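Sequence design from tokenized structure. All designs in this work follow the same two-part layout: the structure record, then the generated sequence. An example of the structure record is given first.
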């Protein structure tokens, strides 16, 4: 399972308290009491100062007196709740003992809890400590959510760059991702996040290989010894690039072993074979080789037979799952495709065949790709300059192929 780092300054902080009270003696005593359980205690003497300071301070809890000259505590509480910068800050209102009316009014203004004046010192510390602990947890969850959103956004940007840099390879990668995830489900293998990312970035190292070498390899021309070494190094290059992101090291390991044969031959040269190879690597190997054979012009049946003719390279259980997958696809193939014009393309559509320029010299979007905004913009830009071959083959919105839900 891919996760973001959990350690942060939030998890080790004891929190910041803002005390709002017009009595200087109460402010002094409260600061002394709460300094023992928090990182910092800030005090202000009136509601105006509280409204000015709170958004800048971003406290973990506000201890707010009800009765103050000028703006009373209820008004301050209500205004704090109206400000997007302070609406989530816990507010502990200070009321007179058994002042039921003030408590009801405080709840209406947005207070989270109440404490009576004069304070019981032990109770004040215990109540504030509890609120600080709860709010620290809330902030930690917010921080994790923010990191997760940033994480997904960064991966999305990387995917977009790959799609633009090498449309055909990225289209294959997306098909490998969907096929690999479905095979994993058939084999009841979890950790789909790792598998998804490893499938998507298994050819990331191609970015380090000169375009001329990639074109030569794609045309099945003989490569020099140095060029063969470049192509063999793609998994290692992919792992090295992914290693810059600590959370992707496990993904990098899966990518590194993607070319290792089930019988122990092939690269990497380390003595690892059979079930000692990561299962995600074994799944990706089958899905990737099948899709690459299809990309090279073989039919589905021909690609399947080719894999079985070299079955010593592949995990037998994964091959069996692929066979079952292909049977399901064949049964539904007639329901999959429809054609549209460029003007009818929309974000989110699944492309079933390469979209090329009208001279067929350049693949702009690879088969297997799900259209995004930048890809659609790229297509329209190429249409203005070179023209795009139409009609375009996409998957029907109602189609549910064996692995379309991945």
């Amino acid at each position: 399972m891919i996760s973001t780092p959990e350690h942060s300054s939030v998890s080790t902080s004891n929190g910041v308290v803002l005390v709002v009270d017009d009595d200087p003696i109460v402010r002094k005593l409260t600061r002394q009491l709460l300094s023992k359980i928090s990182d910092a205690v800030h005090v202000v003497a009136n509601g105006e100062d509280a409204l000015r300071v709170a958004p800048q301070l971003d406290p973990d809890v506000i201890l707010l007196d009800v009765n103050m000259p000028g703006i009373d505590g209820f008004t301050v509480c209500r205004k704090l709740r109206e400000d997007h910068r302070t609406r989530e800050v816990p507010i502990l209102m200070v009321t007179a003992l058994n002042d039921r009316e003030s408590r009801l009014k405080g709840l209406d203004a947005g207070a989270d809890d109440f404490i009576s004046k004069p304070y019981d010192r032990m109770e004040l510390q215990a109540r504030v400590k509890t609120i600080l602990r709860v709010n620290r947890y809330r902030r930690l969850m917010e921080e994790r959510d923010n990191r997760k959103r940033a994480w997904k956004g960064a991966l999305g940007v990387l995917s977009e760059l790959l799609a633009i840099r090498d449309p055909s390879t990225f289209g294959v990668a997306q098909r490998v991702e969907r096929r690999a995830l479905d095979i994993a489900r058939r084999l009841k293998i979890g950790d789909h996040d790792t598998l998804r990312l490893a499938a998507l970035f298994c050819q990331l190292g191609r970015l380090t290989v000169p375009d001329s070498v990639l074109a030569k390899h794609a045309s099945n021309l003989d490569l020099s010894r140095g060029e063969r070494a470049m192509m063999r190094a793609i998994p290692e290059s992919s792992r090295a690039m992914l290693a810059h992101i600590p959370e992707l090291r496990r993904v990098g390991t899966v990518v590194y072993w993607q070319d290792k044969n089930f019988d122990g031959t092939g690269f990497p040269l380390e003595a690892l074979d059979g079930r000692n190879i990561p299962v995600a690597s074994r799944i990706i190997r089958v899905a990737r080789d099948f899709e690459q054979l299809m990309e090279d012009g073989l039919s589905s049946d021909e690609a399947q037979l080719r894999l079985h003719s070299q079955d010593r390279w592949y995990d037998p259980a994964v091959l069996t799952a692929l066979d079952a997958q292909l049977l399901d696809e064949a049964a539904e193939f007639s329901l999959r495709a429809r054609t549209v014009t460029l003007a009818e393309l929309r974000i989110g559509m699944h492309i079933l065949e390469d979209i090329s320029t009208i001279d067929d010299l350049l693949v702009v979007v690879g088969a297997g790709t799900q259209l995004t905004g930048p890809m659609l913009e790229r297509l329209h830009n190429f249409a203005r300059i070179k023209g795009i071959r139409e009609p375009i083959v996409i998957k029907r919105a109602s189609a549910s192929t064996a692995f379309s839900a991945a």
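The chain has three domains: 9-144, 166-334, 336-406. We note this feature because it recurs in several other targets discussed in the main text.
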